[in-house]
Amino acid sequence: AVVSTQSTGDAVESVRQKQVQGIPFTYTNEAEAANVKRSTLFDKVKQKHPKSVGRAPILSICQQEALATMMHKKYNKIEFTNTEIKSNAKDYARHLGRTATSKFPSNFWCTTFRNSTREFLNKYKRDSRSFTDTSDSEDDKESGTFTTTTA
């Protein structure tokens, strides 16, 4: 049986509304009304199996922006080659204590990094103010310095 995501989402929302309002219901009746399996509806309502697609990123968005800022200060430009990005990203990940795979950063990651940080660096350059770290988190050590090796 084909189950549409829309009907599953509607059934989950219906059950949650009934729970909040104290309206009696059964998972079996709600599942039949939405044409979904009872166990699927139960799991979705109880959030039994949250899906995480792919692996966790090596660098967060904030850390990528910090890396771009440091590279801008180092090279005094906002467009970087893959070699420059790879060398600096690998060293920055090591500085943060991240375990980077031998494939990090890939050419695809470099392209994504370049595209996502271009707007940030243009704004940074327009503002012409220095980057200050406002995070107290141990996970975000963006303001540190690191040495770069050649790729």
Question: Explain this structure to me?
Answer:
The radius of gyration is 23 Å and the shape is elongated. It starts with a helix and ends in a 24-residue tail after the last helix. By secondary structure, the protein is mainly alpha-helical. Helix 1 runs antiparallel to helix 2 (27-34), helix 1 crosses helix 3 and helix 4 (61-75) packs across helix 6. The model is unreliable at 130-144 (pLDDT under 50). 56% of the residues lie in helices and 0% in strands. It has helices spanning 5-21, 27-34, 38-46, 61-75, 82-95, 107-127. It has 6 helices and no strands.
Briefly, what is this?
The protein has 151 residues and is an all-alpha fold. It has helices spanning 5-21, 27-34, 38-46, 61-75, 82-95, 107-127.
